[in-house]
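WARN no homologs supplied; continuing
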Amino acid sequence: MPEWMEPDFLRQANLNIWSAVLCGGLIGAERQLRGKRVGLRVCMLIVLTSAMFVTMAVEIAPDGGNRVLSGIVSGVGFLGAGVIFAQNGRVSGITTATLIWSLAAIGACIGFGYPIAAILATLVIMAILGLVDFLESHLPRLGKEHDDSNSA
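OK structure emitted
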């Protein structure tokens, strides 16, 4: 029987796939509900593909995970850079770019066999995203530039 059909591998792959879908889905749902550019589908796909790249690399060559992880970090960094925009002196998309990188890290964590750590990281990321939105809407902006054109 091929190794990829062994019960242990199938069990691990199943756990990895559904952990990735859960983690990506939780963060994606939060982003989708807030009307952000990266929503449910994209979040789930980033976590799932990262998890599967690492799972297969580790399965094929036990030391192969490091090389794949390096590729994921670089590739997803490039993907994240594509969502950062500068317009009229304002930069937007930094949170989205960072989130894309975080999603890939969650997927890699799952792929290396640490789904509980990935779920905990997912919950922390969701708390950070929610807390920052709350703070930004309830606290005055510190260091905000004021328009002094009307003052004498």
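The two ends are 84 Å apart (CA to CA).
OK
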